[in-house]
Amino acid sequence: MFVRILKARHNSTNEMKRVGNIYDRICSIDNIRQAYINAKKNKKSTYGVRVFDKDVEGNLLRLHNELNSETYRTGEYFIFKKLTPKEREIYRLDFRHRVVHHAIMIVLEPVWCNVFTRDTYSCIKGRGIHGCANRVRQDLKDVAGTQYCLKLDVRKFYPNIDHDVLKGIIRRKIKCTRTLKLLDEIIDSAPGVPIGNFVSQYFANLYLSYLDHWLKETKGVKYYYRYCDDMVILHADKRYLHALLTEIKEYLSDRLKLQIKDNYQVFPVDSRGVDFVGYVFFHTHTLLRKSIKKAMVKKSGNIKSMASYYGWCKHCNSRNLLKKLKIDEGIFKQQATAHSAVRSKSVCV
């Protein structure tokens, strides 16, 4: 009990402490050069990178001067629709703006990650899909305490993020006025938070971070997981989950100006499994989500694709699936290893 009190005090101290005097670090030429390297990863052949690379040092120096003089402004977005896995509007900026976003996050990522709870996932180092899946699987070992699941997500989350609320949340951790001015300009450059901006994924995670703290610390929820705006809560009592659902709706509406989708569900874990982060979790086993299995079947002849799907399969009970597809698991591993070696070699070159 004493340890819990100390941890609570430590967490509240971290949240209250605001960070200042960071703008010079963001716009330093060394930080911008590193941001350029980060932004370019896996995008060397794209048109925007090739144009930027025609005068790398000149472009980096211009960004440094614009940021240093506080004259930097977000450019026009190219907006297009992505239809899979669901229809979304994607916002794209010139590569130079991506460099700026990376420069911001090199400095701010450790600040904001300090706000996130242990069960916040997505866009956090070491806490991706498989980190979340492993945590859910581990917690399901408490069979009595995880009999029922509440599953919900936010209606049109990114487009409905309120700018004033987001700015207020950011100011709970940052007091550097020049940094806040830069972040405010990026926030106000598009409605909601645009999907496609590198910094948007962090804005989105931060927006729901105090909901996470409220659920874990104020409401005392033990088994709670959030991946972007998808949330799962496990408990022994379905009546408790229904009551909690009402409170979550009120919290989202009153404090964050958000609504949850009407497809929320409270159900027994053993009767249907928890469909979350690409897997279906039961107390006794874990399966791949049906849509991923279908995609895997379609691409079963492609070595590169199979190597990536092995990453999914090795985190669940997939032996019967591989048998049905007539894939030897040993060959599957060899394909993944060979693909990984090719990638490593290309990186070294």
Please write the string of helix (H) and strand (E) elements: HHHHHEEHEHEHHHHEEHEHEEEHHHH
Helix segment tally:
17
β content, as a range?
Answer: 5-15%
Distance between the termini: 54 Å
Q: Unreliable segments (pLDDT under 50, ≥5 consecutive)?
A: 1-14, 342-349
> Percentage of helical residues?
40-55%
Look at the structure and give the mean pLDDT.
Answer: 87
What's the number of extended β-strand segments? 10
Biggest beta sheet attributes: 5 strands, mixed
- Please state the CA-atom Rg, rounded to the nearest Å: 22 Å
Q: How would you describe what is shown here?
A:
The chain is an alpha+beta fold. It is 54% helix and 12% strand. The chain contains 17 helices and ten strands. Strands 3-5-6-4-7 form a five-stranded mixed beta sheet, with helices on both faces. It has a three-stranded antiparallel beta sheet with strand order 8-9-10. A hairpin with a 2-residue loop joins strand 8 and strand 9. Helix 3 crosses helix 5, helix 3 crosses helix 6 and helix 15 packs across helix 17. The radius of gyration is 22 Å and the shape is globular. The N terminus and C terminus are likely disordered.
Concise summary:
The protein has helices spanning 2-16, 23-26, 29-40, 47-53, 56-68, 95-113, 129-139, 163-170, 177-187, 200-207, 209-218, 238-256, 269-272, 290-298, 303-313, 319-324, 329-348; strands at 78-82, 88-92, 120-121, 148-153, 223-227, 230-235, 265-268, 274-276, 279-281, 286-288. It has 349 residues and is α+β, with helices and mostly antiparallel strands.
